[in-house]
Amino acid sequence: MPSGATAVTLRVIGIGPGGPRQITLEAIDAIVDTDVFFLLDKGSRVGQLTQARQAFIDRYAREGHRVVTVDDPPRDRDPDDYEAEVRRWHLARVDALEAAIGAALPGGGSGAFLVWGDPALYDSTLRLTDQLAERAGLNLAVEVIPGVTSPSALTAAHGIVAHDVGEPVLITTGRRLAETPAGADANQIVMLDSHLSFTETAAPDDEIYWGANLGTPEQLVISGRVGDVADEIVRARSDLRARTGWVMDVYLLRKR
């Protein structure tokens, strides 16, 4: 930490997969104790997600808090070099957030990011705060508050265990699903899969437990043999996006 800069406590608060009752008491306490909330504005396409974060703040934040909206830098969703594009995007985000934190908390205090699910699982906020903590103009103490994960919300919604007795579970992304080696594919929890890659990789007899917008009034869950329910899931996901403007889905793929 730079010795000349005023200290700022920066909290990364997991708020669960979207359900307002799935936030933890620890997360509520952290929200109550925060001065400034930083929201990355990703545009009207996911405006409902911003509104959901704002609802948490309106419900739990103390009087006198502030909300600072930061325009999220554009990102190429289909780049030739995925990892290089993500690094470029993260750097642009760090630049924007450094400026926002410095302007909002010049005399110190506390700021927070509200993170869907848990900050440790397929979320980039902690990578951003690591980079922010290295910036010369900031003196940050980062606190992390865990949240309910979408995989745990998924298994709860279906009332299942993620694995048979003693079996391992692989957590992966849609982009990586086709790379799962034989022997590691008994139970796969798949996140960030807007293309529903299981429709190309799974066998018809494999089992799938799919859920979208878990914990919200729009929650959808479908389960069964891939060969029986794949088309239903594709239609349901498309209809949900058209109706609500956003989809956050996750599924368990079980080899049979």
Automatic annotation (TrEMBL):
It comes from the Bacteria. One of its GO terms (molecular function) is precorrin-6A synthase (deacetylating) activity. Residues 10-229 form the Tetrapyrrole methylase domain. GO terms for biological process: cobalamin biosynthetic process; methylation. Keywords: Cobalamin biosynthesis, Methyltransferase, S-adenosyl-L-methionine, Transferase. SUPFAM superfamilies: Tetrapyrrole methylase (SSF53790). The keyword ATP-binding does not apply. The keyword Isomerase does not apply. Pathway: Cofactor biosynthesis; adenosylcobalamin biosynthesis. Pfam families: TP_methylase. InterPro entries: 4pyrrol_Mease, 4pyrrol_Methylase_sf, 4pyrrole_Mease_sub1, 4pyrrole_Mease_sub2, CobF. PANTHER family: COBALT-PRECORRIN-2 C(20)-METHYLTRANSFERASE (PTHR43467), PRECORRIN-6A SYNTHASE [DEACETYLATING] (PTHR43467:SF1). This is Precorrin-6A synthase (Deacetylating). The lineage of its organism: Bacteria, Bacillati, Actinomycetota, Actinomycetes, Mycobacteriales.
